[in-house]
């Protein structure tokens, strides 16, 4: 943990301890009751700092989100960012990302540029922002968009095959012809008789739009698809980010797979730029990052190591990347023979696994490659250019999302070509075929039998990747000259870990956002400290398992596994529904709430990778299932359960509001109309006992995993004031009203939903239909937020009743509802509902039950031993450690229950 993070934890613990004395007395609404750190000064300044040491470094800027208590600031409020000591104002661009129902600001986003460099802590408060020495400007003329940061100028066409026409600095063209390239082959490379033909598709732009115009930050979005002749493949969406005064820009690149899994094998997927080469060959430089801070440091025409010495000063200048003196001043035994020193114009670094890269070079096409080194995990960064300027380039998560590759071609000629391969053409082609032949599971009864043995919910035609997506992040610097070694190290670090500003846990909790279900870490008493240790153990365990089990790869990175196989000492990566987790029981939420209360950068980065993955790869973005996610399985798209519970916006909301990430904002907006998917696919079609045909005006939708996903999208659109905000608010209110009107409220389980009115039918007959899964995919968090936002007593009462009775005795359930809830599970995870009801109703009995269910029902009880069992060969492939009692379902629910119980009833914890 960084010193900054440690200081944040100490401050958070002090704030939480001081607040515990009055948390029970606050009962006006959930957010207040659940946020012990809340104070009356809702408009108080907010402290902001970097997640990791190093500050802004070489990055062009940073964007961060800050929440505000209800009523603290009106819409349109301006904000000033100053250094923590108040000595200097920092230019900041502000916009609203969410509003409270009363119209006041709920979340604001703030962008800073290079002027934030060199400062560790800041203060954000209402005020007039400082003016900048630079201003990013955007102009649109004809079919071009020009963005000028004051240091570099980029021209973006609104059509054609170039993403970026040119990037200039001081009148010098540093890069041109930024474009996308896709390589396809029509069959895999199976066998040893291959003669596969590759096809190249070029990215074709359908349109470019300006999303932000400055003064600190500008954003240009470019959409299109890859094309070869009349064939189009893999639509893309690319955003370019520019900051005032910056010499660099960021790219966020998304592709969606729309091919045929049996015929379209992606051989290469890349972003390519042309870099003019103006300098003499000995003044042209190649820099390629290896592992850590390592670099290959070379010139296109090297004058070091020769049989004749041009002079120590000349050699040292070339290694530093400086202009060499006139060759007439060198030792003439070198100068007269320069024509015989090779020009090395082509370089390739290929990272085909998470553990190894190779680096090679050649003098040019048609010539043999020479090994230039290798190592473990490359940074994914390079530079090509010379003393007159050049381009630095980098691909984030380079080795984590292998196979990746960096190419430099033609650096000995008039222009070099740089390609950042998101999928390396030297790897095996991308193979997204379903992994088995169906094994005769053609009917629902056969598929249910399969589910009962491998836990895989198979159905022919459902294991398709059509419509899944992946987002990658890249950065580019237009350098006036070859950068010094320390600058290159800083640029590579900015690619690996883009600097992120963030508010601290106390300020996040004080705002009462996300249902007020978290409070800063508090180790003030041994019982709380014990739970904090357990939470730390679990996070560390999963972080270590990612490394130990190599949960990496282009389509896999960011996910974790579901269940462990104690016999093989291996996660069940090849056993049906026990393999990739795909957000089952909300590990995404566990991680985000863990970050919100701790401010730990390593948790943020883990949750960030999961959000990028689960929102893109586990969800369909095209086709008839667009808006639905896929249940856990051997492949992320393999299971036939396509449901709202996976695609739900509740898992994306924290990352969006903390970073204002536009791509994640797109994902949530796209879900606003996902209630239409119930016309296409019935989530429980295989287990219905009565005939059912989807009817637009009578769709069967569950109040748990189904409605919570819909509600999350509607809430997000409403509070963001998106294009469909009016519809979203109406849907929220009408469904909340008609759930509250059900004879048994949430215990009714499901209702018939009318797509035209947005209302559930209210039957006369009460029904008891409770599942242990209903509330475990974001329903708890959604209800806490909605009750705080919308005054609807019947809905609140229905939810509180569900919370009170899930963990009640069968007799208590039957006395209230006329029948008990049946055989239930996940009592520990549901203890947070006891805690919520206890906080709302100020009920000591419910608080006591919450802690009993948390500590000694199921899940990780007080009998759990928290220790690591070492593993080594021959029992396992790689040495490491295991804990046989840990499963991801239990971890997610334990983590959420621990965090929420501590926030809501922490002062009632048994000591």
From TrEMBL:
All copies of domain PcRGLX/YetA-like N-terminal RIFT barrel, residue ranges: 46-126
Entry keywords, A to Z: Signal
Q: Which InterPro entries match?
A: PcRGLX/YetA-like (IPR045793), PcRGLX/YetA_2nd (IPR048330), PcRGLX/YetA_3rd (IPR048331), PcRGLX_1st (IPR048329), TAT_signal (IPR006311)
| N-terminal signal peptide | 1-27
The PcRGLX/YetA-like central beta-sandwich domain, residue ranges = 136-492
- Domain named PcRGLX/YetA-like C-terminal alpha/alpha toroid is located at 498-909
Q: What is this protein called?
A: Tat pathway signal sequence domain protein
Identify the species of origin: Streptomyces kanasensis
């Amino acid at each position: 943990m960084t010193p900054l993070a440690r200081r944040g934890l100490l401050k958070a613990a002090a704030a939480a301890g001081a607040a515990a004395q009055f948390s029970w007395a606050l009962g006006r609404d959930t957010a207040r009751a659940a946020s012990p750190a809340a104070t009356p000064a809702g408009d108080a300044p907010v402290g902001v700092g970097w997640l990791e040491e190093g500050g802004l470094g070489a990055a062009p800027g940073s964007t961060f989100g800050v929440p505000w208590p209800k009523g603290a600031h009106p819409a349109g409020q301006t904000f000033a960012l100053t250094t923590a000591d108040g000595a200097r104002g920092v230019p900041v661009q502000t916009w609203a990302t969410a509003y409270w129902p009363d119209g006041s600001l709920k979340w604001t986003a703030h962008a800073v540029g290079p002027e934030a460099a060199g400062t560790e802590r800041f203060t954000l408060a209402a005020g007039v922002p400082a003016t900048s020495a630079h201003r990013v400007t955007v102009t649109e003329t004809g079919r071009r968009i020009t963005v000028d940061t004051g240091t570099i100028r980029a021209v973006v066409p609104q059509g054609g095959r170039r993403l970026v026409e040119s990037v200039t600095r001081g009148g010098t063209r540093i890069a041109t012809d930024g474009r996308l390239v896709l390589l396809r082959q029509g069959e895999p490379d199976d066998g040893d008789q291959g003669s596969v033909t590759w096809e190249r598709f070029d990215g074709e732009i359908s349109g470019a739009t300006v999303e932000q115009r400055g003064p600190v930050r500008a954003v240009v979005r470019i959409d299109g698809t890859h094309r070869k002749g009349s064939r189009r493949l893999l639509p893309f969406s690319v955003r370019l980010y520019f900051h005032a005064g910056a010499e660099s820009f960021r790219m966020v690149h998304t592709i969606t797979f729309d091919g045929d899994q049996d015929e379209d094998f992606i051989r290469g997927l890349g972003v390519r730029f042309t870099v003019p080469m103006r300098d003499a060959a000995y003044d042209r430089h190649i820099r390629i990052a290896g592992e850590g801070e390592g670099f290959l440091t070379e010139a296109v025409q090297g004058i070091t190591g020769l049989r004749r010495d041009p002079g120590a000063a000349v050699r040292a200048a070339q290694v530093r990347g400086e202009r060499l003196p006139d060759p007439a001043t060198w030792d003439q035994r070198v100068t007269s023979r320069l024509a015989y020193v090779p020009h090395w114009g082509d370089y390739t670094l290929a990272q085909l696994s998470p553990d190894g890269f190779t680096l090679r070079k050649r003098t040019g096409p048609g010539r043999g490659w020479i090994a230039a080194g290798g190592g473990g995990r490359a940074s994914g960064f390079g530079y090509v250019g010379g003393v007159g300027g050049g381009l630095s380039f980098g691909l984030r998560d380079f080795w984590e999302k292998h196979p990746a590759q960096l190419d430099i071609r033609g650096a000995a000629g008039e222009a070099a070509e740089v390609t950042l391969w998101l999928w390396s053409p030297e790897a095996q082609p991308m193979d997204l075929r379903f992994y088995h032949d169906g094994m005769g599971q053609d009917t629902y009864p056969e598929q249910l039998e399969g589910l009962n043995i491998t836990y895989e919910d198979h159905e022919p035609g459902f294991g398709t990747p059509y419509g899944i997506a992946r987002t990658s992040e890249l950065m580019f610097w237009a350098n006036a000259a070859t950068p010094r070694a320390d600058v290159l190290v800083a640029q590579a670090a900015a690619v690996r870990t883009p600097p992120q500003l963030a508010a601290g846990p106390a300020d996040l909790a004080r705002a009462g956002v996300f249902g007020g279900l978290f409070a800063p870490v508090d180790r003030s008493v041994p019982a709380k400290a014990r739970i904090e240790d357990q939470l730390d153990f679990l996070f560390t365990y999963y972080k270590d398992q990612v490394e130990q089990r190599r949960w990496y790869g282009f389509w896999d990175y960011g996910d974790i596994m579901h269940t462990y196989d104690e016999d093989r000492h291996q996660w069940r990566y090849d056993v049906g529904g026990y393999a990739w987790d795909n957000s089952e029981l909300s590990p995404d939420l566990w991680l985000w709430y863990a970050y919100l209360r701790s401010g730990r950068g390593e948790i943020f980065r883990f949750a960030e990778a999961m959000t990028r993955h689960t929102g893109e790869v586990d969800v369909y973005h095209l086709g008839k299932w667009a808006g639905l996610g896929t249940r856990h399985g051997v492949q992320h798209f393999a299971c036939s359960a396509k449901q709202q519970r996976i695609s739900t916006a509740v898992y994306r909301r924290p990352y969006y509001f903390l970073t204002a990430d536009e791509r994640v904002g797109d994902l949530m907006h796209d879900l606003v109309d996902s209630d239409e998917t119930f016309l296409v696919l019935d989530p429980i079609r295989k287990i219905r006992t009565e005939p059912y045909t989807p009817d637009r005006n009578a769709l069967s939708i569950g109040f748990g995993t189904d409605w919570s996903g819909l509600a999350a999208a509607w809430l997000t659109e409403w509070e963001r004031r998106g294009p469909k905000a009016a519809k979203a608010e109406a849907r929220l209110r009408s469904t909340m009203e008609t759930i509250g009107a059900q004879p048994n409220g949430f215990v009714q389980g499901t209702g018939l939903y009318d797509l035209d009115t947005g209302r559930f039918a209210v039957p006369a007959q009460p029904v008891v239909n409770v599942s242990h899964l209903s509330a475990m995919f974001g329903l708890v968090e959604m209800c806490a937020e909605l009750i705080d936002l919308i005054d609807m007593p019947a809905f609140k009462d229905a939810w509180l009743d569900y919370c009170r009775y899930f963990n009640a005795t069968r007799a208590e359930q039957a006395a209230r509802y006329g029948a008990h809830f049946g055989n239930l599970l996940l009592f520990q995870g549901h203890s947070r509902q006891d805690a919520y009801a206890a906080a709302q109703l100020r009920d000591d009995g419910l608080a006591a039950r919450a802690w009993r269910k948390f500590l000694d029902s199921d899940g990780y009880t007080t009998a759990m031993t928290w220790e690591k069992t070492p593993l080594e060969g021959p029992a396992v492939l790689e040495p490491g450690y295991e804990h046989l009692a840990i499963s991801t379902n239990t971890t997610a629910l334990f983590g959420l229950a621990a965090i929420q119980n501590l926030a809501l009833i922490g002062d009632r914890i048994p000591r």
